[in-house]
Specification:
mainly alpha, 13 helices
Length: 241
């Protein structure tokens, strides 16, 4: 059995959703068949055949943003980041205008509705391009995509987390703190506490950093990283250890 990497698993999920959802009606039968062929190839560990199927889908349906998305994600999984980015750029350019979760209201909770499904796929495209841009050492551009995705659906904690970590990466600690604070307002989470603590520490908010490290350590006392950062913060504050 071939073990698929996480991005390919996500790709397979997207394809399987398209095959089972009413949105499939909007796809041409040939595009659906090619997507299913690519999915089968990925399951069998044959990404080259999957790429051939996606390329054929693009040749037949050059307006299909999802075929560009699927090929781009598969290319990225093969480490071909620049070609992957070119495909994701096309996917973003061709993506339809969608309603936000706020505009959809209660319909945003029903993933089987065409408009909700389309919103989900457009967010997938933005998130995938952000991942590629991050790998290409373009964090600021990645943040722009995450800004757009969060504006469409602010419920998705994974997007806030990715953006918070990118803000830390570029040294924008205030923005990172804001993102992790927004996450923590939803629920407690040790990694989020720790990330906000590091952001506070770098921002010289040592008391706030100590509070976050202490809470993270209490939630996960077996993690030595939390202990080390707590001790480091207390030493910097002049507290006897």
């Amino acid at each position: 059995m071939v073990v698929l990497r996480s991005s390919v698993i996500a790709l397979a999920m997207a394809v399987s959703i398209a095959a089972a959802d009413p949105v499939r009606e909007a796809l041409s039968s040939s595009e659906s068949r090619l997507a299913e062929r690519a999915y089968a190839a990925l399951e069998n560990g044959k990404p080259a055949r999957a790429l051939e199927a996606y390329s054929e889908a693009i040749r037949r349906h050059p307006e299909s943003y999802m075929s560009y998305y699927r090929r781009g994600v598969t290319l990225a999984d093969q480490g071909k980041l620049e070609p992957a980015l070119a495909d994701l750029n096309m996917a973003v350019r061709l993506s339809p205008v969608v309603q936000t979760t706020k505009e959809l209201g209660f319909r945003a909770w029903n993933s089987r509705l065409p408009e909700t499904h389309t919103l989900h796929t457009v967010i997938l495209v933005r998130s995938a391009r952000a991942n590629i841009l991050r790998q290409l050492k373009r964090p600021r551009d990645a943040i722009v995509d995450l800004d757009a995705a969060i504006a469409l659906d602010p419920r998705r904690t994974s997007l806030w987390q990715k953006r918070g970590l990118l803000h830390m990466e570029i040294g924008n600690m205030k923005a990172a703190i804001a993102d992790f604070t927004a996450l923590l307002s939803r629920r407690e989470n040790a990694p989020w506490r720790f990330a906000r603590g590091v952001s506070h520490f770098v921002n010289s908010d040592l008391a706030e950093a100590e509070t976050d490290f202490t809470k993270a350590m209490r939630m996960d006392p077996q993690n030595p990283l939390y202990v080390r950062w707590l001790i480091r913060t207390q030493k910097k504050r002049g507290i006897p250890i």
